[in-house]
Amino acid sequence: MQTILSRLGIVSDNAGTSTGLSCWHSETKRLTSVSPVDGQPIASVTTTTPEDYERVVQTAEKAFRTWRNWPAPRRGEVVRQIGEALRARKTDLGTLVSYEMGKSLQEGLGEVQEMIDICDFAVGLSRQLYGLTIASERPAHRMMEQWHPLGIVGVISAFNFPVAVWSWNAMLAWVCGDVVIWKPSEKTPLSALACQYLAADVFKRNDVPEGVSSLITGTAEAGQWLSADPRVPLVSATGSTRMGKAVAQAVAGRLGKSILELGGNNAIIVSEHADLSLAIPGIVFGAAGTAGQRCTTTRRVIVHHSRYEELKSVLASAYAQLRVGNPLEEGVHVGPLIDEAAVSAYEAAVQQVRSAGGTFVVEPEVLRDYPSACYVRPCIAEAENHWPVVQQETFAPILYLIRYTALEEAIDLQNAVPQGLSSSIFTHHLREAELFLSAAGSDCGIANVNIGTSGAEIGGAFGGEKETGGGRESGSDAWKAYMRRQTNTVNYSTQLPLAQGIQFGV
Ligand code: NAD
After folding, report:
1. CATH class of 266-449
2. For the domain 1-30+42-262+469-487, what is the CATH code?
3. Comparing C-alpha atoms, which of 134, 96, 71 is closest to residue 10?
4. pLDDT (tens digit, 9 = 90+) per residue, 122-161?
5. What number does the ligand 1 atom closest to the CA of 185 have?
6. 404 C-alpha to ligand 1 centroid (Å)
């Protein structure tokens, strides 16, 4: 791992720690990154002090004044080169993500691929930041809409996608002409550092002003600085609903803008018309992949009563084949949870299921003879939708099976949780699929047919409703949130007619 770190620009000093971004960080506190894979400390980084933060913001403000004047396609060219650099470092960065966060190597590599994809998307976007022309009611007047950059975009990210979430935000923000200050999860600072170095290298080669990309490290407190700072017009925050509520209040209190990407409680409906050969792999990847630590993880399966017993038994057999272990080893499906606190949350949820009267189809287990204390077995419980434990997001591989009779009932159950991120239905019945996608169907930001809840493509807008926060990132027209809209009316006549025909003779 030390070789990979040094190839990614993260240099160890003789105390075995990372020097971090020395220009921004005073030597006060250090943050040690511990791998959940084997419980070993990987390296430590310095944390940002309030004085460092002040310098970061001032440099970012100065950089914005130059960067906003670069033509957008030129900014896109820089982002294209970041995509190239990511292609060259895909294996190293994917391996670091996998080791620092605990997801399988395949998923670590997939996360870096997602970064490459968003770079490609942003490059195209850099020539398509379209406004509108609008018919004016006044003669010889032209009305139009322009999109201008906002300024500093604060990005607060979660541990489970330690690099992709930054890229979704940063690549769009940069082509839009914004500058970015990133506060990554305190659990995955090294993956963030590697991204910052990679971007810094490309920026240097292109004479991009210092401050277009900044990294601040630390705990929630550093995120609070961004949320409270009126010099940061947009805060894009990804994490728990608890965190999102705090960020939303702080940002709204100063009338700033926020993009909130928070927790999910995602369900798959398996209809009587489902093809189980599609549904089963969709459910297993969705529920057990990333050890249940995706915002889009499948947490509930709502099954038509006529297919319930069949699905239960096939799922149990599929779960029996899941290999839990070192996520860097080939053939391992499920790695560790992020830390011991996550294992305690898994155990507490299991206890709550039992207390509510639930039974396990696949038994839960904390796996003791593993290289760290973070490994658990993915489990399946028969449960009821209204139980408090089912209503909440437990960030672990616990899947709830729930039975239904009529599709309307299944849709009501799917919607009857506080979160609204991702949902799907497995059916070959056109009417069922269309009802699920209609205004009377799923209330989530993502609704799929014959595809599971997780594994979104970057081309679509990503995000969810209700307690998931309402934000949209990534594809479609999500870029508009990173810009300010300006309506322009130009009079090329010799008169000054007023709108609505108002006469004001002077
Ligand atoms: P978390 O809320 O504990 O932390 C996320 C980030 O917020 C961290 O960087 C943390 O330091 C910061 N933070 C915490 N409290 C803060 C505060 N009061 N003010 C400012 N910043 C604060 O989340 P986590 O455990 O890292 O990640 C798991 C959660 O993230 C899950 O709920 C998951 O569903 C969610 N998530 C959502 C999406 C999405 O797109 N909807 C994507 C990934 C993860």
Report:
1. alpha beta
2. 3.40.605.10
3. 96
4. 999 999 999 999 999 999 999 999 999 999 999 999 999 9
5. 9
6. 33
